Structure formats: structure tokens, C-alpha cells
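#help-structures
NK: newbie question, is this the right format to request a structure? protein is Peptidase M20 dimerisation domain-containing protein
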Amino acid sequence: MAGWVRALFLSALFAFGGALPAGAQAPSAAQRTQARDIYQRIIAFDTSVAGAQTPAMAEYLAGLFRGAGFAADDVHVLPLNGAASLLVRYRGNGSGGRPIILMAHMDVVPALRSDWDRDPFTLVEENGFFFGRGTIDNKAGVAQLTSTFLTLRAEGFTPTRDLIIWFSGDEETSGDTTSALLAQHRELLGDAEFALNSDAGGGQLDTNGRGISFVLQTAEKTYASFTFTARNPGGHSSQPREDNAIYDLGDALARLRAFQFPLMWNDTTIESFRNTARVFPGPEGAALRRFAEHPGDRVAARTLSRNVSLNSMMRTTCVATMLDGGHAENALPQSASATVNCRIFPGVAVNDVLAELRAIAGSKVDVAPLGPSNSSDASPLRSDVMQASARAVHAVHPDAVISPYMSAGATDGIFFRAAGIPTYGVGAVFIGDADDFAHGLNERVPVSSFYEGLTHWRILVMDLAGAN
């Protein structure tokens, strides 16, 4: 979760009260040791595209579940295109409703040893942090969920509904393992009611290590890229003409720069605007409040549009990100192209955005999709999930304020939402903005935050699938 998101919701207020459930106790010394051992072992697997060790990591984790007494028929390693995913079913008695999916991803982005201060594929505990590639994105979630399942199983706990772990193998790249699960192995999920995603949401620590805010992801914008291409017969540069592929492309991009997609909103953005009105002083705070009270208010939107973070929460955005043109310095260009990346508001069809881009580009520039894209609607703000999340957060960070949010990026959650399974980003990691290096050098997680995440997940499970 990006640092600006935590800052944006610093003073949000979406708190749900209630007594803490019985499962609120801190993890035992034995579970802490178990979770750390799992964490250390899985960090050592280079599960980047280059390392290609998601199959080995999946088999290691599958062995832990089988060794803990999970039936072989409930532990599935699913190979796909050199990667692999893992699905584990913790069977309940059925009295509490339909299954819940608990998600994480095993793969990581690449890390070059020469760039890092420490070996990125060795878990190092130093200065109050765990260092290593994937410590925050997303092997903390994998280790915490695995340890939670193993511990509850050892305690003889029977959930009131089936709990299904889903560890994907290529979230950082194609998302094919999750797509294949939903298209080819949907029966393994049964009639799952919703999913809890450890790869989204999370909390912010202040400089004193106090948890001050938590955002719960309930929506994701669609990631889609397009190519703008202008073509021309070209010719000798000594005889320039008015028609020029580079100029035609430039004109189209200038029109794109000036264009704004229509204002949009959903329950998540309205609730988050209402909450974050408290953190913004002056005109921005007033505009947030006004937009929440009168969705689509154009006066408020003009003020909010000047803030790039807030603007991205109100509409689809498209921006030029790459350029390529010409073939020789002494020749008129025969082609020029640009990559345009869009983050599309939930519920908007990619083809509708494509049609708008073609209208903007005009007749001299071709616009085409650059690879596949995936879209989904926002998840409803379920009171049971919101309340359970609040109890999980407040068990460790009683002063943290909580708000839903919409992510401009994407996770595996977008596939589940598109398949009709509401998904909620409730990741357990609390971290300070200055220490958030997901995808970057010297990725880290506070040691205390990792262990506190065990309490977080236990409470969520006990609250949503434990005996009342």
C-alpha cells in the first residue's frame, strides 16, 4: 500500500466498536517461533520471474499443511506455465455460512544482490526490522496465514464455515494462476461468500511506532494500457511536409493531456471522502465534505482535482508514459507511437475507455489495447467484515482510525471481484511511511508488526468463522 494512501487516510474515521473476541490474545512463544521459521524459509525462495521458485515454495507450504493433518484432498498445488499456486481448505461444520477465501501471493518482484545492503533472499533481523525481498509484499501475509491455519488446527479449532487459503504464484506479473483458478478450478472454491486479501490494506505507524490509521481496500481501479500510433509514408528530411507522424502523435497527446474523464463515485469513495475531510485544512477539507454530501458536485470537484491523489479517486485517468518514433535523423518519420496507461474507475468497461481514446486521438492516430486487462466493480461495505477488521486492528492499535479506500493499483482481488466474489484488503502489516520499500531496495517490515499480524488474522478468523 503506497505511503500517500496512509497519509490520505491519516485522520479518517470509520471505526466500529464492540468487545474484543476471545481470540484476541497475543500469539504464544511457540507460534511466534513457528511463524518466524516459515517466514525465514519462504523469503529464501527466489519466487521472482527470474528465480522461478514458486513451485518449490508451494510444495514446501503444502508439506506443512499435510504434516499438520490437513487431508491430501484439501491441499492442492496447481502448476501453471512454470509457476504454481496453492489452495488449502480448512473444513468447518457449515453452521456459520458459506466459505471465506484468505489470500496472499507467493511471487515477488526481482531483486539484484549487488544493489542491496543485505542478501535479498535471506531473512535478516536488524534494528527492529525484518529485511528481505517479499517481507512486506507479500510473504508476511503468506507466513501469517499459514501459521494461523496451523496453530488453529493444532488447537482443535473447527470453524463454523470452510476457510480456503489461496496463495497465487504470479500476482506481480500476469495473474494467470488466479485467472486459471477461477476459470478452470472454480469447484475448489465452492460457493465462497467473500475473500480477505492480505496483499491490500494495512496500517500506518507514526514516528513513535504507534498505529494511527488503517485503510481497508474495497475497490481497485482497472489497469489498462493502450498504444497510440501515427503512420506516414515518410521521405527526406530536407523536404519537410505538414503531414508528419511525430507531429500527428503530438497533437493527439496534447488533446489527451487536456481531457478529463467524467466524475464518478461509489460507496467506498464517498465514505473515504467523508472521513478524510477531517485531515485536509481549508478549501480541500470543505470540498471533500461537500462532495461526500453532494456526490458529483462540480464546484467541489474543481478544488479536489488540483490534488493529484484526490483527483485519481474521482475519475478514470489516462496518461502518456512511453514514446518511440522515427527511424533516422535525416528522414521524415514513418511511424511514431506512445504508450498510454489508464487507471479505470470500477464498473467502467475497458472498451468504453478505448472508444473515448480513439475519439480523442482522431483519424490520424490508431489506438489499440496493449495486452489484456481486467476490471471489476467495487465490493459492498459489509458490516460484518468492517466490524471484524476494526476489532482486529484495535486489539493491537486501539487508537488507529479506520477507513475504506479504493486502490489505483491492482491485486489478485480484482479477479475475484470480477468473478462475483466481494474482496476486502485487510492486510495486517503496520509500517511507517519512511520504511515502506515494497518493490524497492532493502524491503522491510517491523518485527513487532509481523508478530502482531498473527493476532490480527486470528481475530478475523474467530470473528467471522468462530462459534458465537
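mod (FA): yep, format's fine, and the C-alpha cells are attached above. The chain is about 35% helix and 20% strand.
NK: thank you!
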